[in-house]
């Protein structure tokens, strides 16, 4: 097995290989969510403490958290919640004191899968968030050399490499990641792999973790193959 | 010692029943809202007592989540400020002074409008009733004006530190 092999890609059917469909856990979770959810009085009685408006999020979020141990971001949970719509029977009435509901309130799944366009917008976002949250405290300790190495790998950052401002370098790393994912420059088609990129960058900048740098370099090399990337053998 | 028990005047006021109409809210069924079916509002036309009427103006209710019903809420300090404020307005309107706000009596009233539950509060409540049962600030007689001014001077003499 070569160090640049993409095992996941090799296992895909030819149609998926050609169409380069994005692999995402969000579609798996969405499939597991029920198609129709009846909102009953017992649910409403708990909700009334948080206000008199009930959003799809309020119902879907606890179900997702029960369904998966995966730590989804707020945006991902919102994205899943947007696949549901409320329908209420005419003259539906809720008596809070007696905790009775006349009529019905249902939440119906209106989207079965996410399109690649929707998923592309979420690509690498967790990693980018990790990059945004890097905080070294004392500015004297900023590893400018490591920041330049990362900028070198991400490309298109010559002027920022010359700049002495660590803030500008960090800003450019964040910006480049956004550009790479928005323009699908590296053709990464797996959401988890895309999220890892930002985390490797953070790990290398913060701790000088060489495995993280190796993974990033390996991935960058794989992008030269002009093939979609679904997985890689990660150095631990 | 409780000199001022305005909350007592909310005894006859009612609260809304927490029964809600469920309606779509926002675009494309992303949310539903619970709109109170019959919101209770005190009918002030049937309240004869000026203080009770003022209390009804400031009356509100709040949803007690634990008890699952609305409970009465009245900011008695706010009502008290309104009572003393009204007496201050009466003084400003009818005092023959060029600048009534600079008078010692007005300054004393200014100090008193936050003195909720002060021994003088009973007096202010009674005075408010007296003014509004006899024509109010605008429709009062010269006799009422001189009586009110005399009472205020007496109160100032009695309660001023």
Per-chain topology:
The complex is a heterodimer of chains A (236) and B (161).
Chain A: H1 7-11, H2 14-19, H3 25-32, E1 36-39, H4 41-47, E2 53-55, H5 56-67, H6 74-81, E3 84-88, E4 93-95, E5 100-102, E6 105-109, H7 116-122, H8 125-132, H9 144-154, H10 158-162, H11 166-182, H12 191-207, H13 210-223
Antiparallel strand pairs in A: 1-6, 3-6, 4-5
Helix pairs in contact in A: 5-6, 8-11, 8-12, 9-11, 12-13
Chain B: E1 19-25, E2 31-36, H1 50-58, E3 59-64, E4 69-74, H2 76-94, H3 104-112, H4 121-133, H5 142-159
Antiparallel strand pairs in B: 1-2, 3-4
Could you characterize what this model shows?
By secondary structure, chain A is mainly α. Chain A starts with 6 loop residues before the first helix and ends in a 13-residue tail after the last helix. In chain A, helix 8 runs antiparallel to helix 11 (166-182). Chain A has helices at residues 7-11, 14-19, 25-32, 41-47, 56-67, 74-81, 116-122, 125-132, 144-154, 158-162, 166-182, 191-207, 210-223, and strands spanning 36-39, 53-55, 84-88, 93-95, 100-102, 105-109. Chain A is built from 13 helices and six strands. By secondary structure, chain B is α+β, with helices and mostly antiparallel strands. Chain B has a two-stranded antiparallel sheet with strand order 1-2. The longest helix of chain B is centred in the middle third of the chain and has 19 residues, at 76-94. The mean pLDDT of chain B is 89. Strand 2 of chain A pairs antiparallel with strand 2 of chain B.
């Amino acid at each position: 097995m070569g160090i640049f092999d993409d095992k996941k890609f090799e296992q895909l059917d030819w149609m998926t290989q050609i169409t380069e469909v994005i692999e995402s856990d969000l579609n798996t979770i969405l499939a597991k969510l029920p198609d129709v959810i009846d909102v009953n009085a017992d649910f409403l009685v708990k909700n009334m403490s948080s206000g008199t408006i009930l959003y799809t999020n309020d119902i879907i979020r606890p179900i997702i958290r029960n369904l998966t141990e995966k730590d989804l971001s707020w945006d991902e949970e919102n994205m899943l919640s947007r696949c549901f719509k409320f329908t209420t029977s005419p003259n539906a009435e809720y008596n809070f004191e007696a905790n009775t509901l006349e009529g019905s309130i249902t939440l119906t799944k209106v989207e079965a899968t996410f399109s690649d366009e929707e998923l592309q917008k979420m690509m690498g976002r967790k990693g980018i968030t990790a990059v945004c949250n890097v905080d070294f405290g004392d500015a004297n300790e900023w590893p400018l050399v490591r920041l330049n190495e990362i900028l070198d790998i991400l490309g298109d950052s010559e002027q920022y490499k010359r700049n002495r401002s660590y803030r500008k370098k960090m800003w450019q790393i964040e910006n480049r990641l956004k550009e790479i994912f928005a323009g699908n420059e590296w053709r990464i088609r797996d959401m988890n792999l895309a999220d890892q990129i930002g985390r490797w960058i953070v790990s290398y900048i913060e701790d000088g973790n060489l495995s993280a740098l190796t993974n990033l370099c390996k991935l960058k090399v794989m992008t030269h193959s002009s093939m979609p990337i679904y997985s890689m053998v990660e150095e631990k | 010692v409780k000199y001022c028990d305005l909350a007592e005047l909310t005894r006859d006021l009612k609260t809304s029943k927490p029964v809600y109409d469920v309606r779509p809210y926002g675009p494309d069924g992303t949310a539903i809202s619970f709109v109170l079916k019959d919101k209770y509002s005190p009918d002030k036309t049937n309240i004869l007592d000026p203080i009770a009427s003022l209390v009804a103006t400031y009356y509100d209710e709040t949803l007690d989540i634990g008890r699952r019903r609305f409970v009465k809420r009245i900011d008695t300090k706010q009502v008290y400020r309104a009572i003393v404020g009204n007496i201050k307005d009466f003084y400003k309107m009818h005092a023959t002074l060029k600048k009534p706000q600079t008078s010692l009596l007005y300054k004393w009233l200014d100090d008193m409008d936050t003195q909720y539950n002060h021994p003088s509060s009973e007096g202010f409540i009674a005075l408010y009733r007296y003014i509004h049962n006899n024509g109010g600030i605008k429709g009062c007689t010269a006799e009422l004006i001189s009586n009110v001014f005399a009472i205020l001077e007496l109160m100032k003499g009695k309660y001023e530190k």
